[in-house]
Amino acid sequence: MNKSVLLGSFSLVVALLLTGCGKSDDVLVVGTNAAFPPFEYVGGISGDEIKGFDIDLARQIAKDAGKTLKVENMKFDSLIVALNSGKIDFIASGMTITPERQKSVDFSAPYYEATQVVLVNKNDEAIHGLDDLKGKHFAVQLGSTADIMAKQYTQEVTAFNTGFEAIKELKNGKVDLVLFDSEPAANYLAKNPELKLISLDFEPEFYGFAVSKSQPELLKSINTTLANMRVSGQYDALIAQHMK
């Protein structure tokens, strides 16, 4: 084989390797934990498509930036690490804006108001107010605001990677309750009629898209898209589509 062929082959291999290990300028990579319906979940005809309210918002963000959206599904508590290591460009995962998280990342303007609710077995009549939560055994999603809040009421907190696992633990009688965001809780409740939802006097929370502090232009682009979607009515249309 002559030298020019060798060099050509080498260049092709290098190009393929770079394509496989780096992010393309034409692609915007969003990180999510697709176990939080209706914001992000696995579904579709093929059964492996990541869908949801957040994903539709993220797709419009990418479109406005002239890029194609790529979705990376990962554990919720690993999302900020992945963002700050450059593996993803932003986070769209029903992530509540908190002062602690703001030390590590920047957040977009709030795009959804939520609150925590309690899920218990239907025959449980023990919880009527916040004081009744003291000493209970909580199930929560690892790294979520519920994970943090639960420790105000009890030392017995079992954290899971997904809400589905937490609810399974409740149904099996191994915990007293699940503390979870209101909309996903209602979504799970519809599929688990043996449970009931209890609304208590929790403070409201606000979701935002998280961006690395080194990406102010991306943050500006995300905020512009969110503002335009509200003005055009596209945001309200997605709310009506996903929040049934």
Coarse morphology: globular
Query: Unreliable segments (pLDDT under 50, ≥5 consecutive)?
Result: 1-22
Rg estimate, integer Å: 21 Å
Distance between the termini: 64 Å
Strand neighbour order, sheet with most strands? 5-1-6-15-7
Oligomer class:
single chain
Mean pLDDT level: 91
How are the SSEs ordered, and which strands pair?
Layout: H1 3-21, E1 27-32, E2 35-36, E3 40-43, E4 49-51, H2 53-64, E5 68-73, H3 79-84, E6 90-91, H4 99-102, E7 106-107, E8 112-114, E9 116-121, E10 138-141, H5 145-150, E11 157-160, H6 163-171, E12 177-181, H7 182-191, E13 195-198, E14 205-207, E15 210-211, H8 216-232, H9 234-242
Parallel strand pairs: 1-5, 1-6, 10-11, 10-12
Antiparallel strand pairs: 2-3, 3-4, 6-15, 7-15, 8-14, 9-12, 9-13
Helix pairs in contact: 2-8
Description:
The structure is a single chain. The protein has 244 residues and is α/β, with parallel strands linked by helices. Helices cover 38% and strands 23% of the residues. The strands form four sheets. The chain has a five-stranded mixed β-sheet. Helix 2 (53-64) crosses helix 8 (216-232). It is globular. Residues 1-22 have low confidence and may be disordered.
